[in-house]
Design brief:
single chain; 91 residues; mainly alpha; 76% helix; 0% strand
């Protein structure tokens, strides 16, 4: 039986990766006019690239796992902010 890999990360990875992913997705939307239905996959690809090549360059399994984590957090935060702004504007 194989064990799960030990993933060493720190909180600072999440503090810079998630806002950076959100910023890059926003830039894709505004400047390149990427349709809204492609923003989630764009965030996932950006999160994977950041995690595999910058945060965890020596451990591919940690890079993939944390890349999905970063992108999911960025997508959730983006969606939450969008919903909150729409709700505020409607009142």
């Amino acid at each position: 039986m194989t064990e799960f890999p030990v993933i060493h990360t720190n909180i600072w990875d999440a503090f810079w990766a998630i806002p950076l992913i959100m910023l890059l997705v926003w830039m894709l939307k505004v400047f390149l006019h990427v349709p809204s239905n492609y923003l989630s996959i764009s965030a996932t690809v950006i999160g994977l690239l950041l995690s595999i090549f910058i945060s965890h360059p020596n451990d591919i399994s940690a890079g993939i796992f944390m890349g999905f984590f970063y992108s999911a957090a960025a997508i959730g935060t983006y969606s939450s902010l969008k919903t909150a702004i729409k709700s505020y504007r409607s009142n």
